[in-house]
Amino acid sequence: MLAALQAPVIMMSQNRHAAKDRVAAQHDYEINLKSELEILALHQKVDTLRDKQWMELVAMQQEQIQLLTKLQEQGKQPT
Predict the structure, then answer these.
(1) How far is CA 63 from CA 8, 12, 16, 55, in A?
(2) Is the pLDDT of residue 79 over 70?
(3) Which residues touch 73 (CB under 8 Å, ≥6 apart)?
(4) What pLDDT is stored for residue 63 in this prediction?
């Protein structure tokens, strides 16, 4: 008889616990998804900055080549 009375109470307790677990799991999923989106945005920003730096580096190298070419031409000219 005691088992017959305890069974529904135990089942209700387990159901409440399962519902709390589902809410916690949904919350964790949302947090993880938001974190993943933030990390993706940071990766894009870093990629953009790196591309910009590469473009600046290439421009500096082109300028250096032009200057070296000009110096080389000046060295070949008779004075």
Answers:
(1) 82, 77, 71, 12
(2) no
(3) none
(4) 97
- What pLDDT, on the 0 to 100 scale, is given for residue 78? 67
pLDDT tens digits along 14-67: 788 888 899 999 999 999 999 999 999 999 999 999 999 999 999 999 999 999
The phi-psi region of residue 51 (left if phi > 0; otherwise alpha if psi is between -120 and 50; otherwise beta) is alpha
Which tokens sit at 23?
Answer: 């809410």
User: The tokens of 7 are what?
Assistant: 């069974």
Compute the distance between CA of residue 50 and CA of residue 56 in angstroms, rounded to an integer.
10
Give the type of residue at 55. M
No. of H helices and E strands in the chain? 1, 0
Sort 32 into a burial class: Cβ within 10 Å, 0-12 / 13-18 / 19+. Answer: exposed
